[in-house]
Amino acid sequence: MDLSYSEEQILLRESAARFLAGEYVGKKPAGAWAKFAELGWLALPFSEADGGLGGGPVETALLMETFGAALVTEPYVATVLLAGGLISRLGDETQRAVLAEICEGSAKLAFAHGEAGARGAPAHVSTTARKAGDGWLLEGRKIAVLGGGLAGMFVVSAQVSGAVADRDGIGLFLVPADAAGVDVLGYASVDGRDFADITLSGVTVDKAARLGGDALAAIEAVLDNATVALCADALGALCVLVDATVDYAKTRVQFGRPIGNFQALQHRMAEMAVLREEAKSAVLLGVLKADAPPAERARAASTAKAKLGRAARFIGQQAVQIHGGMGVTEELNIGAYFKRLTVFEILFGGTEFHLRRYAKLGLASGILGKSLLSAPAPSRVLQDA
């Protein structure tokens, strides 16, 4: 199998990295979203029929890696990969018209799905949607909605029939953010990304607001692919931390010589480099399995999230510690990358959640999955250092 990137993919990564380094890092201009649209990034994963560029998981991962390296906070995952991904899978011709608006940068959406008590389980939905005349009446509360404070429209998951966690009773609805009964409490995470808690109190939408098809299957697929994309984002961030830490250790002098000459710190940085390479492989696995059968795709996504979760925590902590007091000052951006990786670790299910999910999927398919579950964590000495 040839795993080399094509010329177009290399050009995408290099041009994105060059633009973000020159126009975004440390500046975050107000017109960034419009510029993303102009560059074609918002249209990247959508089909040409929907006004997109027809890119695939590889192109998305390459772009997301540059986003992580540049600390991009725009709601790309929320709008393009989650809400846009669901509409592109399940929407009819009329509903899919919003995809063109996403591509041109005039629409921001969010997927309102997470709820208290769900603990990452996609099928846990207590929000209800009941028939009301020719439309639907929605009641419920969503928490930690990525990009929710910036969205003009939500894709809302709700139980149409059955009880909480009924896999066959979930529906998806397009709900304007300014609809009567919608209350949005927006806030920023510690790394500057937008989130919101959303309360739906007697919200009515017409029958055309409901997306068709198998809602839960689409939710699981979109969440898996978005998880891998977030892993690529985290990879970009942790690569910056590894390189910055090694460079700092070469120039920071203590006791008459660079601290990089001390064996204990060399061990830490070597472990950081090893985890970075493992992270690259895990992201690649997730990308290659994006269109695989559901169980295989899900195992690959959980592998990536678990591997990147461990790598993110260890590399982030070591980068801060090796930089010493400078690692938490505003003079360096080490702390900003550490915050980004900290938020990443808990998004879409934490490391332990994905370890359990991987094991459950492996047992269900007759695959024990020893390679992930028995993989040693960084040495205890290094963790405690």
Distance between the termini: 40 Å
Assign the structural class, choosing from mainly alpha, mainly beta, alpha/beta, alpha+beta, or little secondary structure. Answer: alpha+beta
- Classify the helix fraction into a percent range: 40-55%
Major sheet size, sense and barrel closure: 4 strands, antiparallel
Number of domains: 3
- The string of secondary-structure elements, in order, is HHHHHEEEEEEEHEEHHHHHH
Strand content: 15-25%
Q: What overall geometry do the principal axes of the alpha carbons give?
A: globular
- Could you give the order of strands across the largest sheet? 2-3-7-6
CATH architecture of the largest domain: Up-down Bundle
Q: Can you say what the CATH homologous superfamily of the largest domain is? A: Butyryl-CoA Dehydrogenase, subunit A, domain 3
| Unreliable stretches covering 5 or more consecutive residues | 369-385
Summarize this structure as a short list of keywords or feature phrases.
single chain, 385 residues, alpha+beta, Butyryl-Coa Dehydrogenase, subunit A, domain 1, Butyryl-CoA Dehydrogenase, subunit A, domain 2, Butyryl-CoA Dehydrogenase, subunit A, domain 3, 3 domains, four-stranded antiparallel sheet, three-stranded mixed sheet, disordered C terminus
Give a nutshell description of this structure.
The protein has 385 residues and is α+β, with helices and mostly antiparallel strands. It is built from twelve helices and nine strands.
